[in-house]
Design goal:
With 139 residues, this protein is mostly beta strands. The chain is 12% helix and 50% strand.
Length: 139
């Protein structure tokens, strides 16, 4: 079953409560979507951040990029720990799903976050090229 993070049913979900107990801190995710080698920001890309917890999928964020191609400051639960730990910092992995219909773009990314760390996920959307127009112009 899929739940939104604001769904009250999660209060009674033991797997989710255990997840929160194991992840009492936060990390921050920023998403930057661009086209043409990061030259143009892409607005209105659907961004969903979720995690499978137990038998359920929990959606922590569902929104769109702004006119700058950004989604800023998505706060996500992470385990306590020192992100500078050289041996193995504790982290939690989330799934980011990016969809942009005009270019038929649909990709999944695994995002790992540590306590107190901000992660920027860059996404580059390559425009589809119309083969007939390429042939018309001889390219």
């Amino acid at each position: 079953m899929t739940y939104n993070i604001s769904d009250e049913k999660l209060n009674n979900n033991q797997a989710f409560q255990d997840f929160l107990k194991d992840n009492p801190s936060t990390g921050t995710l920023k998403v930057r979507v661009s086209s043409i080698n990061k030259a143009l920001p892409v607005e209105d890309v659907n961004i969903t951040v979720s995690k499978i917890i137990g038998d359920d999928t929990v959606v922590f964020f569902d929104g769109k990029t702004d006119e700058s191609g950004m989604v800023m400051n998505i706060k996500l639960p992470t385990p306590m720990g020192n992100p500078n730990d050289e041996i193995a910092p504790s982290f939690t992995t989330y799934q980011l799903h990016a969809v942009y219909e005009p270019e038929k773009f649909d990709k999944m990314y695994d995002i790992s976050l540590c306590c107190g760390v901000s992660v920027i996920q860059n996404i580059n959307i390559t425009p589809e090229v119309d083969i007939e127009m390429r042939n018309f112009y001889g390219n």
